[in-house]
Amino acid sequence: xxxxxxxxxxxxxxxxxxxxxxxxxxxxxxxxxxxxxxxxxxxxxxxxxxxxxxxxxxxxxxxxxxxxxxxxxxxxxxxxxxxxxxxxxxxxxxxxxxxxxxxxxxxxxxxxxxxxxxxxxxxxxxxxxxxxxxxxxxxxxxxxxxxxxxxxxxxxxxxxxxxxxxxxxxxxxxxxxxxxxxxxxxxxxxxxxxxxxxxxxxxxxxxxxxxxxxxxxxxxxxxxxxxxxxxxxxxxxxxxxxxxxxxxxxxxxxxxxxxxxxxxxxxxxxxxxxxxxxxxxxxxxxxxxxxxxxxxxxxxxxxxxxxxxxxxxxxxxxxxxxxxxxxxxxxxxxxxxxxxxxxxxxxxxxxxxxxxxxxxxxxxxxxxxxxxxxxxxxxxxxxxxxxxxxxxxxxxxxxxxxxxxxxxxxxxxxxxxxxxxxxxxxxxxxxxxxxxxxxxxxxxxxxxxxxxxxxxxxxxxxxxxxxxxxxxxxxxxxxxxxxxxxxxxxxxxxxxxxxxxxxxxxxxxxxxxxxxxxxxxxxxxxxxxxxxxxxxxxxxxxxxxxxxxxxxxxxxxxxxxxxxxxxxxxxxxxxxxxxxxxxxxxxxxxxxxxxxxxxxxxxxxxxxxxxxxxxxxxxxxxxxx
Length: 625
Ligand SMILES: Nc1ncnc2c1ncn2[C@@H]1O[C@H](COP(=O)(O)OP(=O)(O)OP(=O)(O)O)[C@@H](O)[C@H]1O
Prior knowledge:
Blueprint: H1 3-24, H2 30-45, E1 48-55, E2 61-66, H3 71-75, E3 78-79, H4 84-92, E4 96-98, E5 121-131, E6 134-145, H5 153-194, H6 210-222, E7 229-232, H7 239-248, E8 257-261, H8 267-275, E9 276-277, E10 289-290, H9 292-295, E11 300-304, H10 311-323, E12 325-327, E13 334-336, E14 340-345, H11 349-354, H12 360-366, E15 369-372, H13 383-398, E16 403-404, H14 406-413, H15 420-434, E17 439-440, H16 442-462, H17 467-474, H18 476-480, E18 505-506, H19 509-515, E19 521-522, H20 581-592, H21 597-604, H22 608-617
Parallel strand pairs: 7-14, 7-15, 8-11, 11-14, 16-17
Antiparallel strand pairs: 1-2, 1-6, 2-3, 4-5, 5-6, 9-10, 12-13, 18-19
The structure holds adenosine-5'-triphosphate.
Protein name: Nif-specific regulatory protein
Function: Required for activation of most nif operons, which are directly involved in nitrogen fixation.
Subunit structure: Interacts with sigma-54.
């Protein structure tokens, strides 16, 4: 073949290899993937009638993907070890070339379809598919020619061997995952029989509801193994806590638990954070720096927000997970790693794979054992024990006596908690800082709940619900609705108070000392523009919202005439002032995400830089926990 011709052929082959590797990483369905690989071979390189056979446990080759053959027809075709040309490839582990099939006595023509070739000659090239040195299948293609065998079979064999290697890796990955799944299912079945409720908090995890008890049983089951665990659940449901619990119950508990928030770092930083860098790798790299993979050696690496890493970085991570080794940025030495991986995400990874945003092969790698954390609204039994746990924790951290009224607990029980356990924890902490006598009462929750409920408010607004209909659930009046005789109770109902901005409460000295930082001033903030609707406001309370104010409001004074003096803020309908809308949403998002700007940005569909700018613009003090 002339030089130019060979050059263009190898370029085409390279392109096809690129296509094939993309196809293999793009779908969760192995058969479908293999059919597409064969289609690409036929389309790009005129390699027709492609066939992929895989070896079963009985050492029989079965056809799993074929060009131009129905699934039913393909399912019938099999070769035993040594049978026909295909069986020989399995037996010898060597490629085979048949220049003219019509003259080959070994050819069994089991798949048929070559009868209408007339004057053309069909040749066959077949190569073994190997995984970790073992033959797991056979890939064959036909070359059809008008002029007899063309004699390019050497390059065909080389090229098909590369394709077969890629297929081998994919098959191995699918089989490993399937095996681990089967193992876990057997284990789950066995352990379910022994499942007993877990009464006391384990590793600080409070759990009394049946679904959290099941989660903890799962934690017990997976902890002893090295299997990768994927923890899924909404923001604030306790994914990191569960990851730590798995580590603490594992044989690796005395080695480090290292966490990386993948969403918080741009790709270049993430790479050097995870893999480390060598001195001089980039401007500012003044000395060698160990990455988190190295720091977690012998222990557990927790990759939080794994769904947020870029496609480019997904490929890098996949390589490390497959090969268990990596190089530091700017370094050439290969470093071996021994970490147990736990990943977490609140994204729908299957959807991301479907949209091509998350690699299917990485998905398989990390989705070995999955633990789903239910949102707090689906495990209301946990609200009381969690609230008491946070009260006790605050009291202990600050060296003070603190209790919570039963009525306050009732209020908490009726909220929807879109920010989950983190929102509940923040709410209790804010209320605790306002308690002057060591008792958390319904009233002291009000300011906290303004913020908590703002998230619900935003959800309803984005759904286009009637703002008036929300008011009883959200407004401070709702929280201020307390029994007669109490400050702010029905006796004062006709003149409800606007919740005054509470004075900054100095943080108790103990807390600051415990954190090793100077004391901060906790400034509870009522939500700007959050005002109560007038009595009889339009729109029914939403039945999905169990917040306290679903009960009817006490009678209200009629709305003032336009000529009258402006009413107190609490008397005005619950419309969001135009200028305050972004501020409200910001507060909501920051509260919901535990004041992590990157997460809040994602929730709002903004960039982190935009959120940071908006926080400054609205003069919102950033809380640090
Ligand atoms: N079952 C629980 N018992 C006690 N505390 C809990 C529980 N679940 C969550 N928490 C507390 O709630 C807060 C949020 O939990 P965590 O950070 O683990 O959530 P997450 O799901 O990882 O959130 P994100 O997705 O936003 O990273 C933490 O302070 C954690 O200690």
